[in-house]
Each structure stands twice: as structure tokens, then as C-alpha cells.
Amino acid sequence: MRRTPGRAVLAYLVALVTVAPLLWLLFSAFRPESELYDLGWPSELTLSNVAYVLTEVPFLRYLANSAFVAVIVTVIALFLHSMAAYALARLSFRGRGFAFASVVATLLISLPVILVPLFIVVRGLGLVDTYAGLIVPGLFNAFGIFLLRQFYLGVPRELEEAAHLDGCGHWRIYWHVILPLSRPMLAALAVLFFLANWNSFLWPLAVAQDESLRVVQVGIASLQGQYASKQHYVIAAALLAAIPTVLVFLLGQRWLVASLKTTGLR
Amino acid sequence: MSPRRTRDSRSDAAAAFAFLAPDGLGLLLFVAIPTALALVVGLFDVDGFGNISWAGLDNFRLMAGDGLLWRSFGITATYAVLFVPLAFAAALGLALLVKDHFPGVGVVRAALFLPNAVSLVVIGLLWQFLLTDKTGAVSRLTGLDGVSWLGDPNLALVTLVLISVWFLMGYQMLIFLGGLQDIPRELYDAAIVDGGGPWQRFRHVTWPMLRPTSFFVLVTSTVNAVTGMQAFDLVFVTTSGGPANATTTVVYYAYQQAFQFGRFGYAAAICALLVVSLGAVTGAMFALTRGGRFDA
């Protein structure tokens, strides 16, 4: 367990190599078109690529759609998942074990596998080509329930009992005791949900053909087709789509990292 | 760990129902029912307009003669066989590298995770740009400007595997870090007293103690390789399944069948087969490692 400076230096190098492609994206987006593939420092840094994408393509609309969907899903999902987790961790009722096992079982289901039947269900509900179709299926995800339940199991019983003696019902205990205590976990999940929804591609691609509902990931993928010979615009658009995720991650990473490290343990 | 009963459990039950109902109904409607449907939609012909008719085993008979489908299963299997061990080794190596404190360790860990925060669509566009034949940064930096990373049928899948490893290794590293930090320090102290060098400490303390975490990573990473988003998003953006179908994964093929050709029933039948195969593979992994014991 000796600490050698060699290990730290190696770690810095590996980290630098890992983020290098992302830094390359950052710089390339501001290069003049003629120097897009050059290796050296550009003769000038230009905002014209980014400006073009923001003004000549409905890119602001794509960004706004993504922001709207990701924020709404994150807020509602956190609320629903913490309620379910509270019931599974803190209330005793018949069938609790079964309810929890059923929730965990859904963790194994990934979107590509159920894409077609999910699409059929959502179409049956009349939600194709609507914001609801983009939002509602994204709300339900057992991972958040699972992590919050683990967290709530560790909340000392005494806090709840004191609140109960003060005359609080379940709702007020959940709202005034449990939720405030779980802020770090809620923050971690908020980061995770925002990233997952901002980055989601396959579901919006399948459920929304209407251009006014286009989210940013679908938007840049379609730009790629239209602007095959104008890569500087595609790269600028990719940077615009990446910036919010990188910011959210950097701001929220201390909670996120702590929660992810426990994922594999339970 | 069951909480003590402190209240009338009947009022608990009513409250529990109210707290669970919204999420429970949602999971039922948007996860459980589609999953159940996934197993039966394949028995019908469903077109893009919602017309449904009974097909019996027709879709499954069609599958038998669909060479591209079997090719996509082979491609998915190859992808998983390359990706799982590479990502496992990279993630474990990184976790060992950054598990102890040194100045800036937090920044290093964040940097290693950063690709995972970016969408696979952006990742795909970025690497397509970096790997552009002849003019891309990779060609210029390495001097390998005769190599067409994404355009050569023999190389494209391997290139996608490497991009996926880069994308996911930070995530798996964090899970390994959790496992590493759970190993009691005394075990290492005892090993040092016994004169164990770094390799022996890894072999006799870290590796066995990390078994449950390793198993978790192995299984989730296999499932991810087969049905995860990189099997679709990354393929869609970088190669569209090409060149010459060399990167057409099963989930990409199923998407094409459903949303490009309107053959929803056929796509569902493919996914049903995928789920069954994946179940068999994870079951076999469980049996071979005896529930996560690697050294048996």
C-alpha cells in the first residue's frame, strides 16, 4: 500500500488520454471549416459554426424539447420513486417482499428488447407524437426505487417514531422526515435521471416523428445525414448537445459517484 | 431487515397501497405488460398502422431462413465476447490505479467517468469525426492513414468495441471502487506482515474479496453488450449496421425490421429469441462461476 508518485503520474496520464477526445470535440467546434481536420492550433477560433447551428437549424427547439422532457421526467420520477421506496422500506404490509421482488425483476428489462411492444402500448394509448409519449414511459424505472429503498432502510426508526408521537401521519413523515434526510441520494438520482433522459435516443426516435417534438439527440443524428459534407456544423451541434450533460455531471458528480459505488454491492 | 411494527398494520397497508400505486401502475403498464407482450407479439403480424392478424409460428419460420438475422446474432455474440473481458480488465485496472488517495484523485476519477456522461449519439459522431479516413485526427496522429477504422468490414466491429470500452470503463470502475473500498484493511496489513508483495496481495486478498462485485460487473456488462444502448445508438450513428452488415447487432436489426419495414411482429419475435438466448447465457455464467465464485 505504499504510495508511489509513479502511480499518481500514470493516473494523470490515463485520465488525460481518456478525456482527450472530448477536449478535441471542444476545440474542433470552434475551428474554421478549412482547418477542421488540422492537428495544430487553429489560425483563429470562430463562433460561426455554433452560431450557424443555433440560428439556421431549429436547434434551440431541439435543446428546449430535451430540457423540458429531461427536467419533467427527473422531477416526477424522483417523487414517484421516493414514495414507492418509502412504502417498501418503512411500511409493513402483506406482500411487501413480493412487491419488492417484482420491482427488482423489472431491472433486467432494457428498452431495445421491449421497444416494439412498448411502442404498441403507447400507440394504443394515443400517445405517439405527443410530449406525453416522450415523457411518461421514461418515468418508470426500478433503479431509483431500488437505491432509495436501500437508503431508507438505514434511516433510524426513532426519528419516525418521534414524528408519529407528534401526530404525523405517513404522508407527513414521508414529506418532513424521510425526504429531507435523503437529499444526497435524491441529488445523485437527479443527476442520473437528467443524464439518462437528455441522452436518450432510441425511444424519442421511435415515438416522435413530428419535427416539432424532436429532441436534441435525434436532432444531431438527423443533422449528420443532412450535413454529411459540412462536418463542422455537425461537430458544433454535437458540442452543444454535450455541454449540458458535462455541466450537470461536473456539478453533481460528488453525489453521483458515492451512489454508484454502492450499486454493485447490494 | 424488517422494520418493527409500531403502528396498526392495517393503516400501514392502506398507506402502502397509496404510496406504491402510482409507480406500481406505471411499471405494470410500461414495463411488465410490454415484457409479457414481447413474448407473444411475435405470434402476430403487426404492421406499422396497427393492423394485427394471427400469424402463428410464421414469424419464427421466417427467422429460420433469415441469414442476416443469424449473422446479427453472430455479430452480437462476437461483440459481447470482445467487449466484456476488455471492459472488465480496463475497469478493474483503473479502479486499482485510483483506489488510494493521491493529490487530485477526485479529478482523475471524474475524468475517467466523463465519457459516460455524454450521449452515445455524440460519442458516435465524435469518434466518426476522429476516425475519418485519411484526414481524421487518429490517422494523422498515428500515421496509420491507410486504415479505415469504421469502413473496413473486418475492423468496424472491433472499433465499436473499443469505443464502447472507453465509454463504459469509468462507470464499471466506480462499481469496482465500491467493492475495493469494502475490503477490510486488516487483510492487507496481515498480508504485508506475511511478506506478500503487490501481486500476492492482489491474488490472495483483492481478487477473492472482489468476487461478488466482479460477478455483478460480468453479468450486467454482458446484458449491456447484448441489449444496451451502445448496441443501438452507437451503431445507428457510426455505421448504420455497415459496412456490408458487419456491425448489424440484433437490436439494430430488430429496430430496422419494425420501424423501417413495418414488420412489428417479426421484430418482436426476434426480441423474444434474444431474451431467451440472453437468459441462457446469464444462467450459464451463473452456473459456470457457481454464483460468482471464480476460483472454484
Protein topology:
The complex is a heterodimer of chains A (about 270) and B (about 300).
Chain A (H helix, E strand, L loop, with lengths): L4 H24 L19 H9 L2 H32 L5 H10 L5 H14 L6 H9 L2 H12 L3 H9 L4 H12 L1 H16 L3 H6 L8 H11 L4 H31 L5
Helix pairs in contact in A: 2-13, 3-6, 3-7, 3-10, 3-12, 8-9, 10-13, 12-13
Chain B lengths: L8 H32 L3 E3 L5 E3 L3 H7 L2 H32 L6 H13 L2 H11 L6 H6 L13 H26 L3 H9 L4 H12 L1 H17 L5 H6 L11 H11 L3 H25 L8
Antiparallel strand pairs in B: 1-2
Task: Report on the architecture of this protein.
- The complex is a heterodimer of chains A (266) and B (296).
- By secondary structure, chain A is mainly α.
- Chain A contains 13 helices and no strands.
- The longest helix of chain A is centred in the first third of the chain and has 32 residues, at 59-90.
- Chain B is mainly alpha-helical.
- Chain B has helices at residues 9-40, 58-64, 67-98, 105-117, 120-130, 137-142, 156-181, 185-193, 198-209, 211-227, 233-238, 250-260, 264-288; strands at 44-46, 52-54.
- In chain B, α3 packs parallel to α7 (156-181) and α4 (105-117) packs across α7 (156-181).
- Mean pLDDT of chain B is 88; it is low at 1-7.
- At the A-B interface, α1, α3, α4, α5 and α6 of A face α1, α3, α4, α5 and α6 of B.
Strand content of chain B is under 5%
How many strand segments of chain B?
Answer: 2
Approximate strand percentage of chain A = under 5%
The residue-averaged pLDDT of chain B reads: 88
Q: So what's the overall shape of chain A?
A: globular
Q: Strand-and-helix sequence of chain B, N→C? A: HEEHHHHHHHHHHHH
- In whole angstroms, the N-to-C terminal distance of chain B is 31 Å
Q: Average pLDDT across residues of chain A?
A: 90
Number of strands of chain A: 0
Largest sheet of chain A, if any? none
Structural class of chain B: mainly alpha
Radius of gyration of chain A: 23 Å
Distance between the terminal alpha carbons of chain A, to the nearest Å?
A: 27 Å
Low-confidence stretches of chain A: none
Going across the major beta sheet of chain B, what is the strand order? 1-2
Q: What structural class results from the helix and strand content of chain A?
A: mainly alpha
Helix content of chain B: 55-70%
Radius of gyration of chain B: 24 Å
The share of residues in helices of chain A is: over 70%
Write down the overall geometry of chain B: globular
